[in-house]
TrEMBL record:
InterPro entries: Galactokinase (IPR000705), Galactokinase_CS (IPR019741), GalKase_N (IPR019539), GHMP_kinase_C_dom (IPR013750), GHMP_kinase_C_sf (IPR036554), GHMP_kinase_N_dom (IPR006204), GHMP_knse_ATP-bd_CS (IPR006203), Mevalonate/galactokinase (IPR006206). One of its GO terms (cellular component) is cytosol. Residues 4-50 form the Galactokinase N-terminal domain. It comes from Deinococcus peraridilitoris (strain DSM 19664 / LMG 22246 / CIP 109416 / KR-200). This is Galactokinase.
């Protein structure tokens, strides 16, 4: 059977909604520590098409997997599969008193799974946008991000922070979303025009519902208890000596968060003043901190960052997203991103045996 909406459900879709993937420029593992992040969008998007149907049944088709699934509104239950994203969203909307009816939905995504580019949040935000239109729900874009996070933390079962959902819901191309994760206040910071944003997927997929991410969160909570603060955000750089005196590995974990928050603020200042050399340095420093202090990088990603360092046209490069696989974000001289991204990808593939994917700049 063909994989269009009509061929799956026998009628046209009434609503189409989209949400982009995101790349975080800097500010990693700071969101669940009440800190600062600086994401922007990537060109790849997730698309949902929906039509209302009689009764409480939801029928779904995941085009990329060529899989169908269904459930009944009010009977949402964890299954460990892709349909949990839908179930989580309808469960949270219903909990907030929004009135939904049954619907048919087709999902498709250009954001590669496990790439550290928020395929999950893009799906959740696209779904919420689609349902907002289909059922005339009174929810704004920040509420969409909050609902998406609740769905992911709840029924989906991934204990992630709020950055990805806020980025997929609110970030715009050509601008960074400078977000304070403590109160969700944000500013839009235009990206420098004389730079190419390069995003290269290492071809190694990560898993967030998995243990390593949760271990890092628990380590941060323990560090807070020992330091007597509500969150690591409360510690300025001046407290580093106290932080470093924590038992290992807590000292290094907390040092990453404290220095990373400071780097986000410096990066925003560097973007505003057009200081690309400084911004690049901050990227490399952030990567080193994730690799050595937070220990969320892997050999493949480290190799890409080192290959980027050898390129004259690259200002800076770092692991983006949660880590344990995923993608590298780089800043390159304007007009050179495609060339250096391709050269780094080729050399990386040769040395690692992996299959990298250059997500942006697109070939033209
Ligand atoms: C993942 C999580 F989903 C985010 O909330 C954030 O913690 C990120 O890892 C690390 O900065 O993308």
């Amino acid at each position: 059977m063909s994989n269009t909406f009509v061929s799956q459900f026998g009628q046209e879709s009434q609503v189409t909604a989209r949400a982009p993937g995101r790349v975080n420029l800097i500010g990693e593992h700071t969101d669940y520590n009440d800190g600062f992040v600086l994401p922007t969008t990537i060109p790849q998007e997730t698309t949902v098409q929906l039509t209302r149907r009689e009764g409480p049944e939801v029928r779904a088709y995941a085009a990329d997997l060529d899989r169908r699934g269904s459930y009944t509104l009010g009977g949402e239950a964890h299954t460990g599969s892709w349909i949990d994203y839908l179930q989580g969203v309808t469960q949270e909307l219903t909990r907030d008193g929004h009135e939904l009816g049954g619907f048919d939905v087709r999902l498709s995504s250009e954001v590669p799974l496990g790439s550290g580019l928020s395929s999950s949040a893009a799906l959740l935000v696209a779904l919420l946008r689609g349902l907002r239109e289909l059922f005339s729900l009174q929810i704004d874009d920040v509420e969409i991000a909050r609902l998406a996070r609740r769905a992911e933390n709840g029924l989906v079962g991934a204990n992630v922070g709020i950055m990805d959902q806020m980025a997929c819901s609110l970030a715009r191309e050509g601008e960074a979303l400078f977000l304070d994760c403590r109160d969700l206040s944000f500013e839009r910071v235009p990206l420098p025009r004389d730079v190419d944003l390069v995003v290269l997927h290492s071809g190694v997929e990560h898993q967030h519902a998995g243990g390593d991410y949760n271990t890092r969160r628990a380590e941060c909570e323990r560090a807070c208890e020992l330091l007597g603060v509500a969150s690591l955000r409360d510690l300025p750089l001046g407290d580093l000596l106290r932080v470093e005196a924590l038992p290992e590995p807590l000292g290094r974990r907390a040092r990453h968060v404290v220095t990373e928050n400071a780097r986000v603020l410096e990066a925003v200042a560097a973007i505003r003043s057009g200081d690309l050399a400084k911004l690049g340095e901050l990227f490399f420093a952030s990567h080193a901190s994730m690799r050595d202090d937070y220990e969320v990088s892997i050999a493949e990603v480290d190799l890409i960052v080192e290959l980027a360092r050898e390129q004259q046209a690259v200002y800076g490069a770092r692991l983006t997203g949660g880590g344990f696989g995923g993608s590298v974000v780089m800043l390159a001289r304007l007009g050179e991103g495609r060339r250096v991204g391709g050269a780094i990808a080729d050399e990386y593939a040769r040395r690692s045996g992996r299959t990298p994917k250059l997500l942006t700049p697109a070939a033209n």
